């Protein structure tokens, strides 16, 4: 893995990259960029860049996908990532992983939504 630290203006925007980590993984490159929004709050921008080479011989292009992760979501995101990574590792090891939570169980307990379960 290769670390790169950069502080620069992002093209076409005023979001500054304060720190960046580049992860090369086969045909994909992942960029983990710490940025600052207009309110000076820090957030994580995760970009997946994948080389796409058309079969007809035209020019190579890169397909990019981004997600933005804000500090208030870090713990929940990491809990979810650790859970699914553990599940995958158990599957690879030939273990029978625990069943996943149902959609009803996945709803946040701290939400203000009223939940009704009506059966006829």
SSE ordering: EEEEEEHH
Strand content: 35-45%
Sheet of most strands:
6 strands, antiparallel
Main structural class: alpha+beta
Describe the protein.
- The chain has 120 residues and is an alpha+beta fold.
- It has two helices and six strands.
- Strands 1, 2, 3, 4, 5 and 6 form a six-stranded antiparallel sheet that branches.
- A hairpin with a 6-residue loop joins strand 2 and strand 3.
- The chain is flat.
- The relative contact order is 0.10.
Structural features:
120 residues, alpha+beta, six-stranded antiparallel β-sheet, 2 helices, 19% helix, 38% strand, flat, disordered N terminus
Would you summarize the structure shown here?
With 120 residues, the chain is an alpha+beta fold.
Write the layout of secondary structure elements.
Blueprint: E1 2-4, E2 8-9, E3 16-25, E4 28-36, E5 42-52, E6 61-70, H1 74-92, H2 103-106
Antiparallel strand pairs: 1-3, 2-3, 3-4, 4-5, 5-6
Protein name: PUR family DNA/RNA-binding protein
Pfam family, one: DUF3276
Organism: Parabacteroides hominis
């Amino acid at each position: 893995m290769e670390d790169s630290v950069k502080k620069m203006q992002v093209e076409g925007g005023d979001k500054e990259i304060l720190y960046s980590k580049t992860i090369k993984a086969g045909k994909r490159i992942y960029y983990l960029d710490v940025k600052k929004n207009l309110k000076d709050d820090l957030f994580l921008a995760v970009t997946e860049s994948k080389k796409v080479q058309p079969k007809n011989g035209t020019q190579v292009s890169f397909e990019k996908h981004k997600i933005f992760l804000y500090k208030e979501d870090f713990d929940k995101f990491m809990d979810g990532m650790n859970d699914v990574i553990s599940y995958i590792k158990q599957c690879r090891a030939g273990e029978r992983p625990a069943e996943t939570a149902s959609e009803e169980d996945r709803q946040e307990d701290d939400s203000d939504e009223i939940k009704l379960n009506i059966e006829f």
